[in-house]
Amino acid sequence: MEHLFGIQLESHNGPVPTSSVVFRYKLVYFSAEWSPLCNTLTSELLAFYNMINSYEKIFEVLFVSYDRNKSDFIKHFAKMPWLAINYKNKKRVKMLEKKFGVKEIPFLALIDDDGNMKNNDVRNDIMTKGLAALNAWDIALCR
């Protein structure tokens, strides 16, 4: 995944090697503070993330910011316990946008260990299937 996300991701405790993201479920999340839809999804994703990881961490989110400035990014990222692409790396954000076919935000997709998109309907899965989404994601990851 380093070829897509770089060698380091941002956490609230400083840089984290991308190679340390070895969890079963990995989501890439394109979002922005200025979007009401993104703020709603962030809240729902946070509840889902905490529920799934409450016993054992098996799930990570990689946040790609569409925030308009650094202060909005900081405010937005403060609500998230997961990892982020460095805000300053706009070139990487554009490359990821193109790779995953992002047309609007919020955009949330399941990726495999190589960064290949396996499901781009994750938002709907979380909102309608709850924990059963993990079964659908297991099937998608095996394809």
Automatic annotation (TrEMBL):
Species assigned in the record: Stentor coeruleus
Pfam families: Thioredoxin_8
Protein name in UniProt: Thioredoxin-like fold domain-containing protein
GO CC list: nucleus
GO MF assignments: thioredoxin-disulfide reductase (NADPH) activity
Every Thioredoxin-like fold domain range: 25-116
GO BP term, pick one: negative regulation of protein ubiquitination
SUPFAM superfamilies linked to this entry: Thioredoxin-like
